[in-house]
Every structure is written in structure tokens, then in C-alpha cells.
From TrEMBL:
Residues 51-126 form the GIY-YIG domain. This is GIY-YIG domain-containing protein. CDD domains: GIY-YIG_SF (cd00719). It comes from Streptomyces chryseus.
């Protein structure tokens, strides 16, 4: 009888070995972050950070809600979150704390943020990841999407009653005013760059206007074809009056405010990683 060698899976003295380096890195990152205390999400805390890349964790009260990364500057990225949260209803920066780790620039190729996301998702944590919190401008093609009820912009919509910062009394044209708002508002405003806006003048006498009041004045000054639409997380201004948007809370048309009722995505609608449904129109 001829003896046959046992396969590796049956052997008692030799077998294959697989080292999951990425899992080990994710575990170590999570362990090091867990050793840190948390600081308020405020200018005072952020100003103490070094201008270095890294990963960070955000907490809403005592709940761990988000993992993020900064490829160049942790302070810059955290200030973006601070500004964003300051312009929302139902939440304030005082509700938020953070901790962070600096990482070497060449470490970014290993996607430390994704390693942490994988680690904490398995534990049922970080609900703000993949729910729209980290989004910037989603683009025109997403303006008509309905949001899931758990989307960040649905939970904490933009605050239109907040005073506008940096208003200057005097005459301006609408295009210059919109450019200024793009810098000062704590949420994005997107608009069509039109000569009509550049030639339309607006006189500002009250520099303590709310965003709501200012949008009413802008829509009154613009021609009847223009519409300002306040969506869940940002504002758009186009010559599409009257057009309905799924997630709109207010429309500004000819100086008047029309209140909308945002429609949420249903369970059978396809949704993307950002928590929005497939566009329903254009």
C-alpha cells in the first residue's frame, strides 16, 4: 500500500497563516483613541491642535456618532463641522465633543478612517457615517431627492431664522451678495451665475436680518422667474419658479414665503450611501 501525504487542512504540524495587517491597524487606532479624553467642539479646543493630518471621532452628548479624517489639517476639518452644526436646528456645537489622533501623511494610503469605520460599524456605533453628515454640496442632480428620516439633514435641517453674519449696509447687486453668503452662511448656497443677478440691485438697511428675511428681500428684488429653495441641508436659487423639490422646507418667490412639507424616502425607494433616494425629477 502506498502512503499519501495529508493535505494542509488535515495536518497537525503545518498549515497556512494569514496576517490581517489592516485589522490590526484598525484595532490599534480604536484602542489609542479610546484612551483619549474628549474636548468640546469649540474654537478654543480646535485652536490647540497642530496643523497635521489625522483621524477624529465626534460625540453627540455621550453618544459616539462619527469617525472622520483630515488629509491635511485636523483643525480645518473640525472647524468645518463646527460651522455646519452651528447653522442647524435641533443641535448646537455645545452638544458636541471630539478626540483625534495625528497620523503620518504616508499612512493615509492605508485609509485609517475606513479602518475605524469598519471597526465601529461592527459594534453598531457611528450612526452619522453614511447618513449625509460629512457631505458637502451633493450637486444639482441630487436637489430633487427625498431623504431618509435618519439622514443628518432630515434630523437637523438648516436654521433659516439665524442672523446673517457680515451684512454691510448699502447698495449691492444680487450676484455679489450671493457670493458673500456662500462664504458666511454655515451651510451651502448654490445659484445660477446670471447677468440678471449682476444687474439687479438691492439696498440693505438692516444688517441684523435673519436668513429668512434676507431671502425674502432677495426674491423680491429678483425677477419673477427666480426661486430660492431651502432644502434640508442647503439652499439653491434658480430660474425655475415654480418648481417643487422633495426635501424643501421653504420657497421664496417674489418676496413671498411658501412653506413646504419635506417628503421622506420610503423603504422601497433605492437609497445611496449618503441617505438620499434616487432623484425623482430634474
Amino acid at each position: 500500500m502506498t502512503a499519501t501525504a495529508e493535505g494542509p487542512e488535515e495536518s497537525t504540524f503545518h498549515r497556512g497563516f494569514t496576517l490581517s495587517i489592516t485589522k490590526a491597524l484598525g484595532d490599534q487606532l480604536a484602542a489609542d483613541l479610546a484612551k483619549l479624553t474628549r474636548a468640546p467642539l469649540s474654537d478654543v479646543s480646535i485652536n490647540q491642535l497642530l496643523q497635521r493630518p489625522g483621524v477624529y471621532q465626534l460625540y453627540l452628548h455621550d453618544d459616539f456618532v462619527y469617525v472622520g479624517k483630515a488629509e491635511k489639517s485636523l483643525p480645518m476639518r473640525l472647524r468645518q463641522h463646527l460651522k455646519k452644526i452651528s447653522g442647524r436646528r435641533g443641535i448646537t456645537p455645545n452638544d458636541m465633543t471630539f478626540s483625534c489622533l495625528y497620523v503620518a501623511e504616508d499612512f493615509s494610503a492605508l485609509a485609517p478612517e475606513q479602518l475605524l469605520i469598519n471597526y465601529h460599524k461592527d459594534l453598531g456605533e457611528i450612526p452619522w457615517n453614511n447618513n449625509g453628515f460629512g457631505n458637502r454640496d451633493p450637486g444639482r442632480q441630487r436637489d430633487h431627492t427625498a431623504l431618509k428620516p435618519t439622514h443628518f439633514d432630515a434630523l437637523y435641517p438648516i436654521d433659516l431664522d439665524r442672523p446673517v453674519e457680515g451684512l454691510v449696509a448699502g447698495e449691492t447687486n444680487l450676484l455679489d451678495l450671493l457670493k458673500s453668503l456662500k462664504t458666511t452662511l454655515p451651510y451651502n448656497i448654490r445659484y445660477a451665475k446670471s447677468g440678471d443677478l449682476e444687474s439687479t440691485k438691492l439696498v440693505i438697511t438692516d444688517v441684523e436680518l435673519s436668513t429668512d428675511d434676507l431671502f425674502k428681500s432677495v426674491s423680491a428684488a429678483a425677477s419673477g422667474g427666480w426661486q430660492i429653495t431651502a432644502l434640508g441641508g442647503y439652499v439653491v436659487m434658480y430660474e425655475d419658479n415654480p418648481t417643487e423639490y422633495a426635501s424643501a422646507s421653504r420657497y421664496y418667490r417674489g418676496g413671498e414665503v411658501v412653506h413646504g412639507v419635506p417628503r421622506f424616502a420610503t423603504e422601497d425607494e433605492g437609497t445611496g450611501d449618503d441617505g438620499s433616494s434616487t432623484p425623482t425629477g430634474s
